[in-house]
What we know:
This is Enamine deaminase RidA, house cleaning of reactive enamine intermediates, YjgF/YER057c/UK114 family. GO terms for molecular function: deaminase activity. It comes from Amycolatopsis saalfeldensis. InterPro entries: RutC-like_sf, YjgF/YER057c/UK114. This protein is α+β, with helices and mostly antiparallel strands and 132 residues long. It has a single domain, classed as CATH 3.30.1330.40. The chain is 23% helix and 28% strand. The protein has helices spanning 48-65, 85-96, and strands at 3-6, 20-23, 27-30, 73-81, 107-113, 123-131. The strands form 2 sheets. Strands 3-6-4-5 form a 4-stranded mixed beta sheet, covered by helices on one side. Strands 1-2 form a two-stranded antiparallel sheet. Strand 4, helix 2 and strand 5 form a beta-alpha-beta unit. The longest helix is centred in the middle third of the chain and has 18 residues, at 48-65. The termini are close together.
Amino acid sequence: MTIHRQNPPALHATPGYHHVTIADARRTVYLAGQCPLAQDATVVPGDVLAQVDQVVANTGAALTAAGATPGDVVRTVVYVVTSDRTTLSAVWERFTTSDIAAAFTTASTLLGVAQLGYPGQLVELDVTAALG
């Protein structure tokens, strides 16, 4: 299976992701929103970056369970409880330098939101992967 990522010349430059991702896939993997929950289902303590680290670990485990890798990801949506652009940039930087960094070279969206599902939750990651 081949995944084609492109930035059309008529669109603005991006900080690492691609505007368009095209995959000829036989199977598609949809992960539930990956939250900063430890194995005991509690929100990990710490700031948003500590929570990103847990989301990275959880996403890696979910992708592995599906037989996928970060390189198979064709779409990500990152939700962060903040209206601060500096925080959004820090979260993006943490994800794009993490063990699942390849997942963020694809079509990606980063959003600041008012709240997420768990008390104290500051970040969530929505992931779609394509397998040949």
